[in-house]
Design a protein that fits this description.
The protein contains 24 helices and seven strands. By secondary structure, the protein is of the alpha+beta class. The strands form two sheets. It has a five-stranded mixed sheet with strand order 4-5-3-6-7, with helices on both faces. It has a two-stranded antiparallel ribbon with strand order 1-2. Strand 6, helix 13 and strand 7 form a beta-alpha-beta unit. The longest helix has 34 residues, at 202-235. The termini are far apart. The mean pLDDT is 82.
C-alpha cells in the first residue's frame, strides 16, 4: 500500500484509524433539547471563529488559539458526548470550508483531537472529577485532565515530526517546552474562566467569552504588527534594507550551532567593494549611498535564490551566510556573483581602476571545532584581505598557510609582550605556575615541529601555551599555594581561572586567536572537562593539543598535593587516558617526542661526564 510507504505515513494511518475508531465507539448522541442543540452549535461556531482570529504573541510569532479552551470547558461542563459532537460539527464545517488542505491532514487532526479529548475526559473522571459548574474539589482533576490533553498533543504531533525527520527529539521537546508552556497554561485558565462565565447563562457566557477573545485577537494583532515593525527596524540596515551587523551575528551564531549539531556544512563570505573611497571622493557620499543601495539589492536578489542570508557588515563591507554549502560550492556562488557585479553597470564606475564595479571576497567554512563565530568571521576577513593584497576583484578561500595569515600571526608575537609581562607577576604570586607555563611553552615549541600545523597554527599553539594559565592571576594566593587537596569550594574557584584568563586575553583584540587555548585547555575528549563539557572535535584542535601538553607537565612536576610521576609513568597514564581525557591522534606523536627529548638529555649527560 502506497499510504504505508514510509514510517511517518504508517504512523499517520495508525493514529487516524485509532482516533476514528475511538470516536465511533465512544460517541453517543446526547438526548438534547432544542436549547441543548443551539448550545452545541454555538460552541462549534465559537471554535470556528476563534480559530480564524488567533491571538499573535511576540517575539517569534507564536499564536494562542482558544479552541482548546472551549473543548476543555465543554468537557468540564457537559462531559464527553457533547464535546465529541462539538468536535465533529466543527471538523465537518472546517473540512467543507478548507478543501484546499489535504484530506489526510483534516483526518489526522480530527483523530488527534478525538484522542486528546477522550483521554482528558477519562483522566478527569479517574481523579474523581465531576462535570458541571466550577468546584474547588475539582482543581486537581482539572489540572490532571489539562496535562493529559496537552501531553498527548505534544506526543502525537511530535512523533510524526520526528519520524518524518524534520526535527530531532531533543530539539522538538526543548523548543516546545520553551516556547509554548506559558500558552498551554493560559489555555487551562481560560477554559476555567469560560466555565465560570457560563454558569449564570450558558449562551450569554459563551458569547461574552467569544467577544472578549475576538477583541483580544484584534488588539494583540495590532500590538504584534507594531512589535514586528520595530524589530525589523532594529534588525535592518537603514540604508540598504539588508540585515545589519548585530542581527547577522545572531543569525550566524544559530546557524553555526545547528551546523555543528547536525554535522552539516556552512560557509561564510565577507566581501568589500573595491576602491569605494575613490568612488566617494569622485562623486560624493550621496552617490556612494546610491551605489551601496543598488549593490545591496543585487546581493539580496541573488542570495534569495539560493536561500542564503545577506547583511551589510559595515561601511562598504557585506556578509553572506550560506547554510548547507561547503567552501567549494560557496566559491562558485561568490565567483559567479563577482562576474555578475562586474557586468552590471553602476553610474560612474567606469572611472575606477578596473573600469567596472568590483569587490574582493573571502570565504571560510565552519568546522566541527570552530570555536566561535568571531573565529569564523576572522578567517573570512583574512581571506578577503588576501584577495585585496593580490590585486582586488578576487574571491579567496581561507588558507591557514597564506601570506596574510602568516603576517597576522606575526602580530601575535608582538602583542604577546604585554601578556608575558603580566605572566611575570606569577614570580611574586606563584612561582610554580610561572615555571609550569614556561615548560609547557617549550613543549609546545618542540611538539609543533612534529605536527602537520600551518605557520599560523604553530605560532598560536606556542603563544597560547605560554599564557594558558594567565587567569590564575585572579585566584587567591592561599588557594594557589595550598598544600594538600583543595576542598570543593576552592576547586570551583580554581576552575574559574580559564574564564578569568579569557577575560584578560579578550581585552586585546589581536590576541583573540589565543582565547580558545586559554579557555578550553581543560576540556576533555570524553566531554567530562570544564568549563563547558565539550567533547571530541567540538574542542578546537589546538586546545586538544594543549590539554595533552599541559597535563603531561602537571603529572611530571613536583606539586604539594600530588606525587610526581616519572616520564615512563606519565607515558603509561597518557595511553590509559587516550580517547578519554586526550585526543588519541596526538598521544603517540607526543610520546615519541618525549622519548626523543629523554634520549637527547641522556646523550648530553654522557658528554658532560666525558668532558669532566
Amino acid at each position: 500500500m502506497r499510504i504505508l510507504k514510509t514510517p511517518a505515513n504508517t504512523y499517520l494511518f495508525l493514529i487516524s484509524a485509532l482516533g476514528l475508531l475511538s470516536f465511533a465507539f465512544l460517541i453517543k448522541l446526547p438526548e438534547s433539547s432544542h436549547l441543548d442543540l443551539i448550545m452545541i452549535l454555538a460552541l462549534a461556531g465559537s471554535i470556528l471563529l476563534l480559530n480564524y482570529y488567533t491571538i499573535l504573541i511576540p517575539p517569534k510569532g507564536n499564536s494562542l488559539s482558544m479552541d482548546s479552551s472551549i473543548y476543555l470547558a465543554s468537557l468540564f461542563m457537559y462531559g464527553l458526548d457533547t464535546t465529541l459532537l462539538v468536535l465533529f460539527i466543527y471538523s465537518f464545517i472546517f473540512f467543507i470550508s478548507q478543501r484546499k488542505i489535504a484530506w489526510w491532514k483534516h483526518l489526522f487532526n480530527f483523530a488527534v483531537y478525538s484522542l486528546m479529548i477522550i483521554c482528558a475526559y477519562y483522566s478527569f473522571v479517574f481523579t474523581s472529577g465531576s462535570t458541571g459548574p466550577i468546584r474547588l474539589n475539582n482543581i486537581f482533576p482539572y489540572l490532571i485532565s489539562f496535562c493529559t490533553y496537552f501531553g498527548l498533543n505534544l506526543l502525537l504531533v511530535g512523533i510524526y515530526f520526528i519520524m518524518a525527520a524534520t526535527v530531532s527529539i531533543i530539539n522538538y521537546f526543548k523548543e516546545i517546552v520553551k516556547e509554548t508552556i506559558a500558552t498551554y497554561f493560559s489555555t487551562l485558565v481560560l477554559s476555567l474562566v469560560l466555565v465560570i462565565l457560563m454558569r449564570p447563562d450558558e449562551l450569554f457566557g459563551l458569547s461574552l467569552f467569544t467577544c472578549i477573545a475576538f477583541l483580544l485577537s484584534l488588539a494583540f494583532k495590532q500590538h504584534f504588527n507594531l512589535f514586528k515593525e520595530v524589530t525589523e527596524k532594529a534588525n535592518k540596515d537603514y540604508l540598504t534594507g539588508l540585515n545589519n551587523h548585530g542581527y547577522f551575528k545572531e543569525i550566524l551564531a544559530k546557524l553555526v550551532k545547528d551546523a555543528q549539531d547536525d554535522d552539516e556544512s556552512l560557509s561564510v563570505a565577507i566581501l568589500d567593494i573595491d576602491d569605494f573611497k575613490k568612488y566617494n571622493d569622485l562623486y560624493g557620499h550621496i552617490q556612494g549611498d546610491h551605489l551601496l543601495q543598488e549593490f545591496g539589492a543585487l546581493l539580496q536578489t541573488e542570495a534569495d535564490k539560493a536561500n542564503y542570508i545577506v547583511a551589510r557588515y559595515g561601511g562598504e563591507e557585506f556578509a553572506i551566510a550560506m547554510p548547507n554549502t561547503d567552501q567549494n560550492k560557496a566559491y562558485s556562488f561568490m565567483n559567479e556573483l563577482r562576474k555578475k557585479a562586474n557586468d552590471t553597470y553602476y553610474s560612474g564606475v567606469e572611472r575606477l581602476p578596473y573600469g567596472c564595479f568590483s569587490f574582493s571576497c573571502g570565504i571560510a567554512e565552519c568546522e566541527k571545532e570552530t570555536y566561535s563565530i568571531s573565529e569564523l568571521l576572522n578567517k573570512a576577513d583574512q581571506a578577503m584581505y588576501a584577495g585585496k593584497n593580490q590585486g582586488k576583484n578576487l574571491v579567496q578561500i581561507y588558507n591557514a598557510n597564506s601570506e596574510y595569515t602568516v603576517h597576522h600571526s606575526l602580530f601575535l608575537e608582538k602583542e604577546l609582550e604585554e601578556a608575558e609581562y603580566q605572566l611575570k607577576i606569577f614570580l611574586s604570586k606563584d612561582v610554580y605556575t610561572y615555571r609550569h607555563s614556561k615548560r609547557v611553552y617549550q613543549y609546545a615549541v618542540d611538539f609543533s615541529r612534529m605536527l602537520n600545523l600551518s605557520v599560523h597554527e604553530r605560532k598560536t599553539l606556542i603563544l597560547g601555551a605560554l599564557v594558558h594559565d594567565i587567569g590564575k592571576i585572579e585566584i587567591p594566593r592561599e588557594i594557589l599555594t595550598k598544600k594538600g587537596k583543595l576542598d570543593p569550594s576552592e576547586w570551583e574557584m580554581m576552575k574559574k581561572h580559564v574564564t578569568f584568563g579569557k577575560e584578560i586575553i579578550s581585552t586585546n583584540k589581536r590576541l583573540e586567536d589565543l582565547i580558545p587555548l586559554v579557555e578550553l585547555h581543560h576540556e576533555r575528549y570524553d566531554g567530562k572537562g570544564y568549563p563547558y563539557g565539550l567533547a571530541g572535535k567540538s574542542i578546537p584542535k589546538l586546545a586538544r593539543i594543549l590539554c595533552l601538553i599541559d597535563s603531561f607537565d602537571a603529572m611530571t612536576t613536583e606539586r604539594p598535593y600530588q606525587k610526581t610521576k616519572t616520564f615512563q609513568e606519565a607515558i603509561v597514564e597518557l595511553r590509559i587516558c587516550s580517547g578519554k581525557q586526550f585526543d588519541p591522534q596526538f598521544i603517540e606523536p607526543f610520546i615519541s617526542m618525549i622519548k626523543q627529548l629523554e634520549d637527547s638529555g641522556k646523550e648530553l649527560e654522557k658528554e658532560l661526564i666525558a668532558v669532566k
